[in-house]
Amino acid sequence: MEFRQVPVDGYEKVVVAKDHDSGLHAIIAIHDTTLGPALGGLRMWDYPTEEEALTDVLRLARGMTYKSACANTGLGGGKAVIIGDQESDKTEDRFRCMGRFIDSLGGRYITAEDVGISIRELEWIGEETRFVTGLSRQSGSSGNPSPFTARGVIRGLFACTEERYGTSHLDRLHYAVQGLGQVGGEVVRCLSMLGATVTVSDINEERCQEFVALPGVEVVPIDEIYEVRCDVLMPCALGGVLNDNTIPLLKTQVVAGCANNQLLRDDHGRELHDRGILYAPDFIINAGGIINVSVEARPEGYDERTAVLKIENIYNALREVFDTARRENLTPAEAADRVAENRLDEARRRNGSSVMDVAPNP
Ligand code: NAD
């Protein structure tokens, strides 16, 4: 395997690996280990160029630092990507090689599931390194994080609806949910069970049919979801969905969903704020999954009750962000960044620099 380090300002270590025999072409970005080892999922995507993969992994790694800082997981932020086709390139060889790549960083980076990766691939990685989380419950690991992410989103909704509508009666409100995947689907089931009205959309017609059978749920075509007159819009599919084209269409006063990187650009947070729309910063409200995984990374190992109790705290984390925003005249997105940066600064003052030695060269 060949390694190439890429110096990037503000990142502790960024390494590109290429292995001729297995075909692995991957990047690991360790953004910040001030608060602990850098934990973040592994994504497999057919990026057209290495440069695009690098842009993605850097943005995601930094997001993990901020997410973990605000959720008090005791972890730092990092991410990994494999450049490859999810259908044809998922070979055991490639993933075992990825495992050796992760292992070479000595535990400064710990991996987990992300887009395009399932437990099977993580198990191949786990043959070569112990720095892997999110394996099956049967193996003593924390399992699929999605139900925990959904739980955290519901918890976060209470903070949002109290802040904007002065109510914690989630059942009395109307939600528009984009994406009926592992997280969005679970959120819709829960809202329907509470008796709420839920309008949904998904590019997958079968998923739509499955959900339209639930009480209070109706389906709209994918491009109509932004225009639904509702109390809470919940982006639960893709990033970048809050942008110049969609924001003017919104007929809601709250946006609160699980998708990562919902704002296409930072100034879209300001645009929402100026239009009187309360935005729940994505990395605060969708932290349930990382909180669940972080419990597995403790020396005493995984315990579901501990995870659930910590996830309840997403409510307080959002309250802190909304209060900071009001007090310091910031948007919630800016306030969330401020909360994360303050936590990192405090820890740096306490510890010197990062708690981890610089990651070894692979
Ligand atoms: P998933 O792949 O299970 O679900 C995504 C769903 O969105 C699919 O049903 C897909 O058909 C649908 N979709 C795609 N494009 C769409 C569009 N244009 N309009 C409507 N629907 C569309 O993914 P997931 O695990 O549920 O994650 C959803 C989002 O939440 C992602 O952005 C992910 O990064 C983020 N997230 C997930 C977790 C987790 O624990 N799974 C944790 C944090 C953040």
What labels describe this entry?
362 residues; alpha/beta; Rossmann fold; 2 domains; four-stranded parallel β-sheet; 12 helices; 13 strands; 41% helix; binds nicotinamide-adenine-dinucleotide
The tally of domains stands at 2
CATH topology of the largest domain: Rossmann fold
pLDDT below 50 for ≥5 consecutive residues: which ranges? Answer: none
**Helix percentage range:** 40-55%
N-to-C order of helices and strands:
EEEEEHEHEHHEHEHEEEHEHHHHH
**CATH class category name of the largest domain:** Alpha Beta
How far is the first residue's CA from the last residue's CA? Answer: 10 Å
Overall structural class, as computed from helix and strand content, comes to alpha/beta
Mean pLDDT: 94
What is the total tally of β strands? 13
Radius of gyration: 20 Å
CATH superfamily heading of the largest domain: NAD(P)-binding Rossmann-like Domain
**Approximate strand percentage:** 15-25%
Q: What's the architecture of the largest domain in CATH terms?
A: 3-Layer(aba) Sandwich
DSSP summary: helix tally: 12
Ligand names: nicotinamide-adenine-dinucleotide
Largest sheet: 7 strands, mixed
Q: What characteristic shape results from the CA principal axes? A: globular
